[in-house]
Design brief:
About 70% of the residues lie in helices and about 0% in strands. It is mainly α. It starts with a helix and ends with a helix. It has one domain.
C-alpha cells in the first residue's frame, strides 16, 4: 500500500474525529432545546432523560470527511482516491444510497417513531440496494459444507443477512457504549484486514467509521446526564452503522478469497459481529417460545443477563466487547485449520452454555 493511502486513511480518521467532536455537542443542544429525549421506563437501564440524536452525526461526518479528503487529493494532484472511487462507482453509489435511506428513516424513528414493520421494509430495501450494486454473498466457503451458490439463492440470502445484521446492531444497543464498542471493534478488524489485503478504500471507510464513533463513545459512556452531556445514538446511529458493517463484511469476503488467504473468508467477515448476531437469535427464539412478538423489546439481552448477575453497565460493556475480541481472534486463527461449520458450531455451543450459566446466576 502506497504512502498516499496511509496518509489518506490517517486523515480520514482525524477528520471524522474532528467533525464528530464539532457536531455532537450541537446535537446535544438541539435535543435538549426541543426535548428530544429517550424516556426512562421499566425496560430501560437509564433513570434520567437522555438525548437520543447522537447517531445523526455518523453519516454526515463520514460523507463530509470523504468529500473533503477527495477534494484535497484532487487539488494536490493525487488521483488514487478518485480512481478507486470511480472503479467501484456502482457498488459505492448503491452502498451510499442504502446508508442514506437507513439514516433518514432512523431520524424519523428517533423524532416521531416508525412501526417495526416499516423499518423492516426499509431494511429489505437497503439490502436490495446493496445487492443491486453487486455486494452479494456468492460463496459460503464451506459453511454447512457448501461453497458456491446460485444467484437465485445468493440474492435472498444476502438480503436476509443484511436485514439480520442491521437488527442485531439495533437490538444490542441497550447499555452505554455497547453498540459503539462492538461496532468500533468490528471496524478495526475490517480496516486491518483490508489494509493487509491492499483494499485501500475499504480500509479508509472502516477507519473513518471508527473516527466517527469514538467521540460519540466518549459522550455516551463518560458524559453526565445531569449536566446535559450524555447522548444516545438512537435508531439513526444503530441502523446506519449496521448498514456500513454489512457493506464492509460482505465486501471482505471476495477480497480475502481473491488474495488466496489461508484463513476462511466467511469467518473473517462475520466473526467480528458474531456476538450481536447470536444474541438476537437467542432473544427472538426466547420471545417466540414464550408467545411474545419477537420485534417488541424486553430485558432479555446478554447485557441484561450480565447486569442481573451483578455487573454494572461499564463492567457488562467491557465484558461483552472483550469477549467479542477474543472470539474474533480465536475464530480467525481456527479458520486456518477448521471448517467454518465446526467453528460456528463451537461458538453456538459456547454461547448457549454461557447464557445458561448467566441465567442460573441471575436467579440466585
Amino acid at each position: 500500500m502506497s504512502v498516499i493511502w496511509i496518509v489518506n486513511i490517517c486523515l480520514a480518521f482525524v477528520l471524522c474525529v474532528f467533525f464528530a467532536l464539532t457536531v455532537i455537542p450541537r446535537l446535544l443542544s438541539i435535543a435538549i432545546r426541543y426535548q428530544i429525549f429517550d424516556e426512562p421506563d421499566e425496560r430501560k437501564i437509564h433513570k434520567r432523560q437522555v438525548p437520543r440524536l447522537g447517531g445523526m452525526a455518523f453519516m454526515p461526518v463520514i460523507f463530509a470527511s470523504l468529500t473533503v479528503l477527495l477534494a484535497f487529493n484532487l487539488i494536490t494532484e493525487h488521483y488514487e482516491l478518485g480512481v478507486a472511487i470511480s472503479m467501484e462507482a456502482r457498488q459505492l453509489a448503491c452502498a451510499f444510497c442504502a446508508i442514506a435511506l437507513s439514516y433518514f428513516v432512523g431520524i424519523i424513528d428517533d423524532l416521531v417513531g416508525v412501526r417495526y414493520k416499516w423499518k423492516f421494509a426499509v431494511q429489505i430495501l437497503c439490502g436490495l440496494f446493496l445487492v443491486g450494486g453487486g455486494i452479494v454473498i456468492t460463496d459460503l466457503h464451506g459453511l454447512f459444507f457448501i461453497h458456491s451458490i446460485p444467484q437465485w439463492l445468493s440474492v435472498p440470502l444476502t438480503v436476509f443477512v443484511i436485514v439480520f445484521v442491521i437488527n442485531a446492531i439495533n437490538l444490542i444497543d441497550g447499555i452505554d457504549g455497547l453498540a459503539a464498542g462492538l461496532c468500533t471493534l468490528a471496524f478495526l478488524c475490517y480496516g486491518t484486514s483490508f489494509l493487509y489485503y491492499g483494499k485501500s478504500f475499504d480500509a479508509l471507510l472502516s477507519f473513518a467509521s471508527v473516527g466517527s464513533i469514538l467521540p460519540f463513545f466518549y459522550f455516551n459512556v463518560f458524559g453526565s446526564a445531569e449536566k446535559g452531556k450524555k447522548i444516545f445514538m438512537g435508531d439513526t446511529g444503530s441502523m446506519t452503522l449496521g448498514v456500513v458493517l454489512c457493506i464492509e463484511s460482505i465486501r471482505l469476503i471476495p477480497t480475502a478469497m481473491l488474495q488466496g488467504t489461508a484463513a476462511n473468508p466467511l469467518v473473517l467477515a462475520f466473526a467480528p459481529i458474531l456476538i450481536p448476531c447470536l444474541d438476537v437469535i437467542r432473544v427472538f427464539l426466547f420471545r417466540i417460545w414464550h408467545g411474545r412478538n419477537p420485534f417488541l423489546p424486553d430485558r432479555n439481552h446478554i447485557h441484561h443477563k450480565l447486569m442481573a448477575a451483578g455487573m454494572n453497565q461499564w463492567q457488562a460493556m467491557v465484558t461483552i466487547v472483550t469477549a467479542a475480541l477474543l472470539l474474533t481472534t480465536i475464530n480467525s486463527m481456527l479458520s486456518y485449520y477448521l471448517n467454518p461449520t465446526l467453528i460456528f458450531g463451537a461458538d453456538i455451543t459456547l454461547w448457549v452454555l454461557a447464557c445458561v450459566v448467566l441465567s442460573l446466576e441471575s436467579e440466585n
